[in-house]
Design a protein that fits this description.
This protein has helices spanning 37-44, 71-84, 99-108, 128-138, 142-160, 164-171, 183-191, 221-227, 246-249, 251-265; strands spanning 7-11, 14-21, 25-30, 50-55, 90-95, 113-119, 208-213, 235-239. The protein is α/β, with parallel strands linked by helices and 266 residues long. The chain has one domain: Alpha/Beta hydrolase fold, catalytic domain (Rossmann fold, 3-Layer(aba) Sandwich), CATH 3.40.50.
Length: 266
């Protein structure tokens, strides 16, 4: 599968790889662990009437680690990217591991953020088994990872998902080859999994939407449920039967929810 084109821009925080999709009010798309801007572009496809800014976080693809090694520093890099693109404010959607820097962006740069969406997000240290699963997958050589990807795409996905459109969208979440181009970013996410344990959720003043699949096997739905008691006026949507990628696997349900929330904030 050929990777869609992207750009690398120099900002005051360092180089950032990004791609744009659509027109309208801007939304930064902070991909999950193992992803990149290409995963963000799939998320952008869920938005209707918004300009998706899909980024590669630090250590992923063409964004150097030095640009944002911690969630807080990556949040600062998002602001620098907005400056470089001459954009005053943006909403942000953080998926899984991308939720850490998304939350930091909403907290640290509230004047630049008009909405926060956290989807199956890491909001505190994940279960140890989940970390071990990610570590194991990240340790494979490129050739082994490529073979496993082929099996997942051509055997696993057709068995799990009958709908061709959904299967095509989900494919990007498996098509992360060569894994060596994302390995540093995954390792960095693992280093940072404890970074949110003492996060000041009560201080977030940005409208917030939490989306979580109740069958998420990596990040328990209870993580998002707990945040509804901590983030002022946060909305929670639980996707029944949804797994860790429910934003995409259940896109016919989640896309209208995303667009409705964003539409109320613009």
């Amino acid at each position: 599968m050929q990777r869609l084109p992207s750009h690398v821009i120099q900002t005051s925080r360092g180089a950032i790889e990004y791609a744009l999709h659509g027109e309208g009010a801007p939304v930064i798309l902070s991909h999950g662990t193992g992803g990149g801007y290409d995963q963000g572009l799939v998320l952008a496809g869920l938005l209707n009437g918004y300009r998706g800014i899909a980024v590669s976080r630090a250590g992923y693809l063409r964004t150097p680690m030095a640009t944002g090694p911690s969630p807080a520093e990556m949040a600062d890099a998002y602001t620098a990217l907005l400056d470089a693109l001459h954009i005053k404010k943006a909403a942000i959607l953080g998926l899984s591991g991308g939720g850490m820097s998304a939350a930091q962006f909403a907290l640290r740069h509230a004047d630049r953020c008009w909405g926060l969406i956290l989807a199956d997000a890491i909001t505190k240290a994940p279960p140890k088994l989940s970390v071990k699963i990610v570590q194991r997958a990240n340790s494979f050589p490129d050739t082994v990872a490529w073979l496993l990807t082929r099996l997942a795409i051509h055997v696993g996905l057709p068995l799990m998902i009958r709908d061709a459109e959904t299967r095509s969208m989900m494919r990007v979440f498996f098509e992360n080859n060569p894994i060596s181009e994302r390995r540093a970013g995954v390792e960095n996410d693992i280093v940072n999994v404890n970074a949110m344990n003492d996060f000041s959720w009560e201080d977030i003043c940005i409208p917030t939407l939490l989306i979580h699949g109740d069958k998420d096997a990596l990040i328990p739905v209870e993580y998002s449920q707990a945040l509804t008691q901590r983030i002022p006026n946060a909305e929670l949507v639980i996707v029944r039967g949804g797994g860790h990628e429910c934003l995409i696997s259940n896109h016919r349900e989640t896309s209208p929810i995303l667009n409705s929330f964003l539409g109320r904030q613009v």
